[in-house]
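[Meeting: bench + compute handoff]

Bench side (C.D.) handed over the final construct sequence. Compute side (W.E.) agreed to return the predicted structure before the next meeting so the bench team could plan truncations. Sequence as handed over:
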Amino acid sequence: MTTNTLTKKLMARLLKRADNHRGNLFLLILGAGIFFLGTGLIVWVNQFLPSSVEQELIALAGLVMCIVGSGIAFLGYLGLSLLRLIKFFNDKP
């Protein structure tokens, strides 16, 4: 495969993703929900559990949830904003 073919395939896939508004919004909301659950878990552990290895492991799980949620929300946000702009500028009249 040539670079040109890969670029065209990637662009087609991104434009298809840009048309999926409902899916992008779902990703954004899902990612935000996971992020806030992770944040809540960290705050809860800090307030209600005594300092221990168990507290640190649960806080680490909350941190991982925050990172995963941020990544998912970022993909949804890109789909709603940046990919829509790419689609707008690539549309031919």
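W.E. noted at the follow-up: The two ends are 30 Å apart (CA to CA). C.D. will use this when planning the next construct.
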